[in-house]
Amino acid sequence: MKFSIKRAALIKSLNKVSRVISSKTTIPILTGVKITADDEGLSLTGSNSEVSIETQIKSDDDNNELVIAEGGAVVLTAGFFINIVKKLPEEKMELSVASDLQTTITSGQSEFTINGLNASNYPHLPQIDTDDSIPFSGDIFKEIISQTVIAVSNQESRPILTGIHFKISDGKLLAVATDSHRLSQRTINFSGNNREYSFIIPGKNLSELSRMIEEHQDLEMRIAENQVLFIFGDTYFYSRLLEGNYPDTSRLIPEESSTQIQLEAPMMLASIERASLLSHESRNNVVKLTIDPSDGKIKITGDSPDVGTVEEELEPDSVTGEELEISFNPDYVKEALHSFGKTMIEISFSSALRPFTLKATEDGNSFIQLVTPVRTF
């Protein structure tokens, strides 16, 4: 194998695939990046056995300045190779692989020789045997991920809850995540595909995908039995699916409430952030919310026996229903509030010990956050 290329083009692609390459793996060859050259260009692959990323560098794109002199494939230790490429002196570089897999990298007066590995030993990418693709706006999909991934569980004792459950049917896509203490559910109208789907993607894999999708970039999704493939630009992102049945979360969302407040999300967020300065010093990490509809005010309280107390009154746009005193984990509520941005929201309560919901006042059912209160007595 032999080719020359503009260094910046190679670095850009190496940065993509290296996201999932780990120096600590039980499969030694996965510490490397697989490079394949053919008439169409270069293909770079990185994998950690759970997520695989493949990206293309096209020969017909003049910006790459890619010239393939000889096709072939090799696996190079990712850490060494990426650092070498980044530190080469000239804008262009050349890479050649000998029959014994000795790989020579030259740029200007600099020349490196490193040991390569046999690419035939690199695990094959998952086979997605379907042309049935689901198109998405990249911006919308990133938003769905950011709004739901906060409620994904990080406890491996219930693996199914470490993922986001996607359900597509009747012209709607529903994405939901819960760690049994809170829940986040986003629904969008969907006309991209008439088939019905139900699948669970690990939350950490979706977070990685979200960081890779560029602004205004469209993507398509293909589902296989235990794998999902996302295609965007010249990049292919493979993730395993979680096996099992996701719990029925629809019954967790209360249909009725006895107390409601409406206010700007940033106002509530700032107040809870101040209260949590002290609650974080307490072993319980609890903030208390007191609602009194008679005077149209709410009170947020945080305390730590070792440090002190903080108390703050807010005047929401609207307070209706019954008096209520409820305690909760401030970190859960902060993340929920942050996901709404600068929106006006409605928080609905049914009792001091029942989960409460946060919704945008406009089109509220399209995005729901639910938080379970903390029993303090």
TrEMBL record:
Entry's Gene Ontology cellular component terms: cytoplasm; DNA polymerase III complex
GO biological process, one term: DNA strand elongation involved in DNA replication
GO MF terms held by the record: 3'-5' exonuclease activity; DNA binding; DNA-directed DNA polymerase activity
Domain DNA polymerase III beta sliding clamp N-terminal, first and last residues per copy: 1-126
Subcellular compartments: Cytoplasm
Keywords: Cytoplasm, DNA replication, DNA-binding, DNA-directed DNA polymerase, Nucleotidyltransferase, Transferase
Keyword Cytoplasm found: yes
NCBIfam families: dnan (TIGR00663)
Stated role: Confers DNA tethering and processivity to DNA polymerases and other proteins. Acts as a clamp, forming a ring around DNA (a reaction catalyzed by the clamp-loading complex) which diffuses in an ATP-independent manner freely and bidirectionally along dsDNA. Initially characterized for its ability to contact the catalytic subunit of DNA polymerase III (Pol III), a complex, multichain enzyme responsible for most of the replicative synthesis in bacteria; Pol III exhibits 3'-5' exonuclease proofreading activity.
Name of this chain's protein: Beta sliding clamp
Gene that this sequence comes from: dnaN
